[in-house]
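Hey,
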Amino acid sequence: MDGFSIIKEHGKAIVEAIRKTAQNDVSRPANPLPPLDGEAWKVLVIDETAKRIIDSSVNEDEILNHNIANIERIEERREVNPDMDAIYFLSPQPHVVDCLLADFERRRYRRGFVIWTGHLPDALQRRLDVARRQMAGPPDLLLVDFYPRESHLVTFRDPSSFLVLYNPTCNDLVAQHLRTLASKIVSVCVTLQEAPKVRYYQPPEHARHEASVLCMHLARFVQTELDRYRQWVQAFPPPSQRSQSVLLITDRSMDLMAPLLHEFTYQAMAHDLLPIKEQEDGKVTFHMTVNEGTPAAEEKDMELVEKDTVWVSNRHRHMKDTIDKLMSDFQKFLDQNPNFAGKDAHQTSLNDIRDMLAGLPQFQEMKQAYSLHLTMAQEAMNIFQKYKLADLASVEQTLATGLDEEYKKPKNVLDQVVRLLDDPDVAPTDRLRLIAIYALYRDGMIDKDITRLLWHASLQRSRDSTDQAVIENLDALGARPLKDNLKEARQPVPPLFPPNTKNMVQDEEYALSRFEPAVKHMLERLCAGDLDPTLFPYVIPPADAGAAESLNHQASLRSAAPRWASANRRQAESRQRIIVFVAGGATYSEARACYEVSEKHNRDVFLATSHMVTPGKFLADLRVLKADRRRLDLPVDRPPPRAPAHLFEKPAPPPATHRPPQPQSSHAHHQSQGGGAPPHAQVGMGMGRQMPPTGPRPPVKALAGMTLHSSGGGSGGSNTEPRPGTSGSADGGKKKDKEKKMRNLFGLKK
């Protein structure tokens, strides 16, 4: 893969929007007055959702380095700061609009510049129209309301999406949810600067079910949003040497095997078998003991991040290859350190290597990365051996592919399944997964047969068990797990992508990884130019269908530059981009497939989805797929967040002071007001720099030099102007400038 990363592009878009606004490099009506002192410094005000969006791709310093004096949360108590402008970087939610209007009403800042992370609904827009005069120009729209997770992987952090889309009791939520998904998908396209051709998965006749039109409707919503954005931004998309991109919209029903099978590449296997957690802030962590067996041992949540090169370089490798690579890298370390002469990593267990690393305090950086991944690899392999996953996966692969290890039609499959269900070493959850896979393979069983298999596997022993519901509820995704009777005639269901057994090479080492997710087959056919247009139609059919299918050598219509202009550019800049969206959640095997196709076919394939699905999460959702909506605790059914009451509290009046009369010069009058502007010259938010036609102009230079906690006296006339919000003394201002910029409110530290 080249160095392109949607994390970087997402962060770049956010920082650039804030930079332009902070430097007043935005389009707004000309102002006749010169800039106010201290105008270069602004406060950035964000809400909780906007903070999460920023945190997913931007470091705090990247923002503070662009004339941002402070970062504040709009929901929290904040000081009134009438001497500074504010940049509001906000998500378009009703309670956030309430918070914003409260700020405007109380003139919390001098002026307000507003940037929305997504389209503001019309009802909220009308509420803001009354506050136009309080804004320093029209609001900006920056479509970044998604969370880049890897260089080519995006999620919306919405694990409830699956239930909203497929639970029959949520039908009235689907239309609005699809519009929300469409808006976020377009945000991904805009961030990538792509206006793609939109195609979608249309299930074949035998797989039609209530939700089978989901992809079609979502694709049309996306096309509408794209057209709307292109009308609004005439220069979109910008000129490029790349062929026009393609957006493929699919959903979970296209491949029900992928979230049920055991996958043995490192990332997928780790997320399936280990207690890896995704925190509310999006961090993915693994809990382990650091420096185990030493006095410095401690429990710690280790984060799996893109900057961890060991993780990034190994996560899509088969676990066998991952362990070989870890061993090989450690052998290099042994060779380079004579203290370990005579050791051989290939004759040393993973546990031995971990123990050796624990005793190397001088190699902290290497210790952190390798201790994490050696621990994860060892624990995953322990589970693999303890629960006989090799035997289990062999049968799973046969059922999922319809072929045995010799790529022939399998025999005695039921006997193999029953033998594993009888085995006490096979975990109950794995038995349930095996029964679900077998039901999909058989394309239906009578109810009594499913019950027998569940009892045979020591499942469904209690009346309130929902194990059988897991199997039966697959029908909501287009499967046919049940038959009315044994005599019901069903035509064999052809596979969506028939395997080409002629080119298959038998490899015993990877016999447990013969299955490939449907997403990979879809992408392979797209790159080859033969993706079936009846299964994956266009929203807007191309004028020349033949030319549209030939993607390998397609010339770009977006670039007017001559060919020689790009002769010296990196090849990666001309790689066509393909965006895959999987509604209802994507698996880690599908993420791996996107990276592999990118590498093989010289494309940039990006996977976007509502959330990542593990086998455990998939089974849990299937259990309640037909449950009453009131039991689901969906975010949309919870009480909506409200603006905090303290935002609407009237500020306490200043204490009465009695001072001797002063001469009515402008400077003396300014001091008599305790450091504020004269009443007739108060500058409200969004009033721009428009001043009354009469009366003296306030001493704004003196105002800029005052601290909010000053009484308005001593520092007002100083020639040295400290940074806004710092001490009024020159020495104090310089000292503060060397420290961390203002309060670290990304971490909510005071």
